[in-house]
Amino acid sequence: MKAFKNITIFLIILATSVAAGQVKFEAKVSKKKLGVNERLRVDFEMNKDGDNFNPPSFNGFTVIGGPNQSVSNSWINGVRTYKKTYSYFLAPKKRGVFNIGQATIEIEGEIYKTTPIKVEITAAIDKPKNPNDPSYVASNNIHLVAEVSNSTPYLNEAITVVYKLYVAPTTGVDNWREIDIPRYDDFWSQNIDTQGQRVQNGTYQGEDYRYLVLRKTVLYPQRTGKLNIEPLTLNVSVQVPTNRRDIFGSRLMTRVSRTVSAGNRTINVKPLPEAGKPADFSGAVGDFSFKVTTSKTELDATESLQAKVEVRGKGNLKLFNLPKMNLPSSLEVYEPEHKENVSTTSRGMQGSISDNYTIVPQYKGKYPIPSISFSYFDLKTESYKRLSSEEIIIDVLDGPINNASNASNNTTNVVKQQIKTASNQFAFIKTKTDFTPKKKEYFFKTKLFWSLLLGPFLVIPLAIVVRRKKATRDADVVGNKRRKADRLARKYLKGAKRELGKKEAFYEALEKALHNYLKAKLHIETSELSKDRIQSLLIERGVETDVVTDFIAIFENCELARYTPITNVTMQEDYQKAAKTISLIDKQAR
C-alpha cells in the first residue's frame, strides 16, 4: 500500500513537471464583438521568455497604445509560474469582420505562432459615462448632429441631410477622421461640396456652441415606408480643460480621442397619390416646364433637322424618362442623343434634360410632328400636372414624290382581255434524247491522287508551327489566366446579355449571374451572400480593394435599378463593368 502511494506521488510530480515544461503562446482579446466607437485590447501571453516577438499587422484597426510589456513570476507549492504579456490597444477603423492575425515569437530555438481571432465591429453603441474621465467631459462638450430637412417626404422628393459638429466654447478640436460613412441604401444620393466652410456660432439644446458643417447630402427616396439613414461616425481629437493650472494661472488642457456618432434617423416616405395619376406618368416629381422645338421647319428632302424634347426645372431630373416622339414613317428618325445639364445643390437637382432627334425627310410634302405631353407631380399643390407641346409642321419643299399611297387606287377600271394560247407553248420540253458515251477515268496519278499522297508531308511543318505556338501559349501563365477569366465572365453574363434593353429582366439576370459566380468562386450558399461577407471573403482571397468596391457597387446598381428609370446606355455600361470586374476578380483571387 505504501509502495502504491509513492508511485502515485511520483506520477503527479512527473505530470506537473511535464505540464510546466510545455510552451504556451496564445492571443486573447477583451471582446470579440464591439462597436466602432469602442476600444479593443489584445494580449499575447507566453509562459516562457522568448525573443524576436513579431505582432500581426492589425488590418482594420489603428494602434492607439502599445506594445506594453508585463512580466509576472509566482511560486505556488514550490512550483514556479512565469507569464510574459505584450498588450496592444486598438481603435476600429470601420464596421465589418476582421482577423487579428498570427503573432510569432522564438522560444528556446523554436518558432511559435498564435491562432488568428475573428472580431466583429458593429455600429456605434452607447457607452457608460464616468464624470471623472476626460472622455466624459469631451462627450458633454462635443456633439455630431444629423439635421434632416424633411422627415416625411413624398417618393422621389428631395431631402437634405446636414451633418454638424458642435463644440463647446471651452473645448478645442485638433482634427477628425471619418470611420463610418452612411451608405443610403434606399436613396439616390449626391454629396454637396462643403470645402471652405467656416466655424459658426449657434446653440445646441439651449446652450451656446460653435459648429462646423462637415457634410451635406441630398437624398431622393426610391421606395415608400420607413427608411433608415445610417449614422456618420467620426474619431475626433479633442482638447478638454483639466483642474490643473500653469504658473500663470491658466487652466491646462489634456488631449483625448473621442468617437462621436450622429445616430440613426428614420424617414417616413409617403407614396404618390393614385387619384388623378396620368397613364403616361414616368415618376417626375418637382416643378418643371416642357417644350418641343425644331432647328428648322422648311427644308429639302435628304436634308436633316434637329428636334429637341426638353424638360427644365427643379426636381428629380435624372430619375425619369422623357416622352418619345411619334413621327410619320416618311421621316427617317435616328436614335435620340440624351443630354443632361443638371446641378445639385442643397435644395436638390435643378437644370434641364433633353432628347435630341436627328430627322431626315425622304419625300416632298408637309409632315406634322404631333403634340406630345409630359406629366409630373407638383409638390406645391400636391397634384399631378400635364404639359403639352404645340403641333409642328415640317414643310419639305423639294424632293421625290411618295406615290406609295396611290398604288392601291390604280387597280380600278381595268379591262379584262381574252388570253390567246400559242401552238408552241410547250416547246421548252425536250422530246428527243442526245446521249454520249462517258470516258473512263483512272484515279492513279491524278491531281487528287498526288494531293492525298503529298498532303500529309506538307502538313507536318504546319503542325510543328502550331504545336510551338500552343506550347508558347501554354507557358504564358498570365495570358492564360486572363483568357480564362474573360471566358468565365462571358459564361456567367450570357443570360444578362440576352436581356439588354429590358430593365427588370436584365438586372435580375445580372444579379443572378453575380450570385452564381460568387457561389462557384467562394463556395458559399445564397443565404451567406451579404455585402459585408462578400467584401471580407474577396479581400481574404487577395482581391484588390478597388475591384471589391466596384463589385459591391454593381450589386447596389442592381437593387437601385428596380426603383429608378434606367437607359440602355446605363445597362450596357453596367454589363461591361460586371464583365470587367468578374475578370479581374478571377485573375487576382487566390
TrEMBL record:
Taxonomic source organism: Hyunsoonleella flava
Origin: domain of life: Bacteria
N-terminal signal peptide: 1-20
Any matching Pfam family: BatD
Membrane-spanning parts: 448-466
Keywords for the protein's UniProt record, in alphabetical order: Membrane, Signal, Transmembrane, Transmembrane helix
The protein's name in its UniProt record: Protein BatD
